[in-house]
Amino acid sequence: MKTFAELGVDEDVVATLASNNITEPFPIQALAVPLAIKGHDLIGQARTGTGKTIAFALPLLHLVEAGRADGKPQALVVVPTRELASQVARDIQFASGSRGTRVLVIYGGRAYEPQVEALKKGIDVVVGTPGRLLDLAQQRALDLSHVKILVLDEADEMLDLGFLPDVERIVSQVAEVRQTMLFSATMPGPVVALARRYLRHPTHVRAESDTDTLTVPNTAQFIYRAHHLDKPEVLARVMQADGRGLAIVFTRTKRSADRIAADLVDRGFAAAAVHGDLGQGARERALRAFRAGKIDILVATDVAARGIDITGVTHVINYECPDDEKTYLHRIGRTGRAGETGTAITFVDWEDGYRWGMINKALDLPFPEPEETYSTSDVLYEELEIPRQATGRLPSAARTRAGLEAEELEDIGETGRRGAAAKPKRSGERAANRGGGEGRGGRSDGRSSADGRGGAGRQGQRQRQRSRGGVPLTDGGAQAGAAATPASDSGAAAPAPARRRRRRTRSGGARNTNSTD
């Protein structure tokens, strides 16, 4: 196996890697780094957790001129999620060591001003998500015309139909003569064909042979057919398995993530949720607490399924069956990273049988018919090494984590924040302002109680008023406007015109009862 120095990496970067016990390159790094340093376009494909970020970070640092006077970005890394953007920026900054490469992470949910100020001071490498990159470029705060290295991380996701228009707009703004690199764990044929539109004579680098499995061999996989009502009990017991470190529980929906996290906390575990409906500050707070060990269970939607690299994750649980094999691979790739061992557990409900069958066939896994398993099944305790005395609640003596409350919520000047701090008037306060009791009982039309529609809201009796011919009537049955009708010259009130009454006849016509023959 070659060393990083033999791959052509600069000596100071090699020393920085060695100071963190990174001395031997992974296969994708050994294949991609020499080609990328020479300026070749390439498509890099390797299993999750095998060092793809470093594979493009090292050539990028080799080719970028640190601290260039004009301060224009020379390299751009585009990623699909905010969490991945933060991680990639940290990895590039770490590998740069003391050479002074200026790296800026750009994504939505944070205030614009700090990002704009950093761009004015000068930046060498920009890592960001498409939306905020285009926003700043449109404001002319971000000049991409000097970018000579373009990297699309998680390229299969970036070239999906949802991101493709934004990616095309970004590509149109960077220098025409550039080096382009694409990296991902999964690279379907149509995506590769589409990617070639942006590359010049690319080299497709694969770290595994066609006969190798797409899953990481160091990750043990367990598939159980579980009833949805028993899943909370099964999960609580899995979380008490011997040797469990940090764990990530993946769900299909944001509501499920909140519900499962709250249930785990109620059972005594230190857990927190991460999903797209949370403000960016809350998402980063949960990830910081997870990395620091203040919580040991992260319940997440697929925002955390791509690229998140957190040391010490021993268990990944698919609480609900993934939609396809790509999602499955990226989820279980959060454990068993960088040569470590891991455990991946998937719960398959009865209604998910067909979906799991397609995943099992696509990945050539040996689990066509998952075994029916409950929280009391012996196979669960034996395979996952769960103590027999484990119950659905964590014993008080084992509750040693500080919890999410121990992590401070950072004020990042969020935009579009949905939390209480950004929008202080929540349901209770709005109801009070409406004069409509608690929750959703009040009306939002702003009318006062004097008109009979405020105050008690929907619970109050709605006042009704009689009318005749569009004219309100008094309690006595007379028209309210009769008393105000001016008298005639003779002092007698003018009689109201008789209303015409019509009735149906046998022939289907109408007869005027007030007419005279």
Structure summarized in a few sentences:
This protein has 517 residues and is α/β, with parallel strands linked by helices.
Can you give keywords for this protein?
18 strands; 517 residues; 16 helices; seven-stranded parallel sheet; 30% helix; single chain; alpha/beta
Give a description of the structure:
There is one protein chain. The protein has 517 residues and is of the alpha/beta class. It has helices at 11-19, 27-37, 52-63, 82-96, 112-121, 130-138, 155-158, 164-173, 189-195, 231-238, 254-266, 280-292, 325-332, 353-362, 378-384, 427-434; strands at residues 42-45, 75-78, 103-106, 125-128, 149-153, 179-184, 203-206, 219-225, 246-250, 271-274, 297-300, 313-318, 342-348, 371-372, 467-468, 471-472, 502-504, 510-512. The protein is built from 16 helices and 18 strands. A seven-stranded parallel beta sheet has the order 3-4-2-5-6-1-7, with helices on both faces. Strands 10-11-9-12-13-8-14 form a seven-stranded parallel beta sheet. A two-stranded antiparallel ribbon has the order 15-16. The protein starts with 10 loop residues before the first helix and ends in a 5-residue tail after the last strand.
